[in-house]
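step 4 of 6: structure.
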Amino acid sequence: MRRALVNLALILVAFTIQNCVFPLIPVLVSTPNLLLILTFSFGFMDGRRMGMLYGVLAGLMLDLFYSGPFGFYTLFYVYVGYINGICTKYFYEDYVTVPLLLSVANELAYNLYVYVFRFLIRGRLDFMYYFRELMVPETIFTVVTTLFLYRLLLFINRKLKDYESGRDTTLV
Amino acid sequence: MNSKYNRYILIGLTVFCLALIVVTTFTDQWLAPLRTAVGYLVTPIQTGVNRVGVAVYDDVADYTKLKSALAENEELRRQIGELTEENNRLTSEVFELDRLRELYELDQEYMQYEKTAARVIANDSGDWFQVFRVDKGSADGIQEGNNVLAGGGLVGIVTDVGAHYATVRSIIDDSSRVSAMALQSGDTCIVGGDLTLYREGRLTISNIQKDGDVKDGDRIVTSNISSSYLPGILIGYAKDITLDNNQLTSSGYLVPVAEFHNLREVLIITDVKETGDPEVE
């Protein structure tokens, strides 16, 4: 329970940083997608059910921020949580290759989703331009950020788990 | 058993989201209270983080700018001399302009619109959409459809309002379309955002009638037949206008007056265009 609350707070913080701090840094060509990193990491660490829960929350925040069709982001993030939750069987602590691969896959899937349903649908056919100028930079930024952020999330989760199990044993 | 539940949850959520997407594509009025409620939670956080971010960024920027500022100071002193001289000349011309305006009743209308200033507190961080959020909302008299200005030109339109925030879609957003006209000739055209152009600081102009007279450097303003933009707001200047392949219309590019990167403060016009006639556009 405490873990869920901390993770929720982290999602809120990530959303705020993503929207309020990153745009202030004009040197950045692109910015990492923090919400996506958080959602897939939590799904990957905690399994499908929790992945979906965090996905719903991250998606709802984005949907409330934008004024497009409501549910567009929620739908995607729920699947991110679920599908990465399936991969939880490959979850070994300190083994960072799988999360890095996952971050590439998730990021490309996310950008394709946005491209197909918001751009291609309006007849924007120049896929290579969007791929080169938007998807590749954002993916690179996200993967590099995952490298650091994933370890941090792992650390926080481990601490909280220790804390919870520690409390359980003292009660017993 | 557990994984079966998970699958049911997933299917349930999918159906729920798809239903929401379908419903809100047609109307999202009923979402307003929800957005406002969440806004009460998120907007203060965004405002706070934004303030801290701006403060830190300004401090860092101050140091780096100090050096160039000194050189700039020299340059500016020199310019002050030139400008003072030019100012004297212009002041006399302003009197002449005023007289001419009265004469032609060309007083630019948008100087009379009710405006309110707002601070930009959040941007879309991804590169796909050019949407931002400001710290004024319906409590300050802002409504959906209000026009947003900065740096003397049109910046965007309010698409969503909460009690203390409003979401603005920039005119450089890929889905933005503004009905516009050339100030000199009155030829109408459409100014559209394009993601592939905005890094070069350009928008597209299209649908100029073949015999229309729009030249490079012409001032493009919002048209009086637009259903959502007030007439006569400067958008930018025309560039590279060429005849289309269909030989019926011309199109080209527009260089906007407003600076879109690093928008900090904007002016929101709280008057809404009254079209009266729903068939106008």
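step 5 of 6: annotate
 - Helices of chain A lie at 2-21, 34-46, 48-65, 72-86, 97-119, 127-171.
 - Chain A has one domain: 2-171.
step 6 of 6: archive
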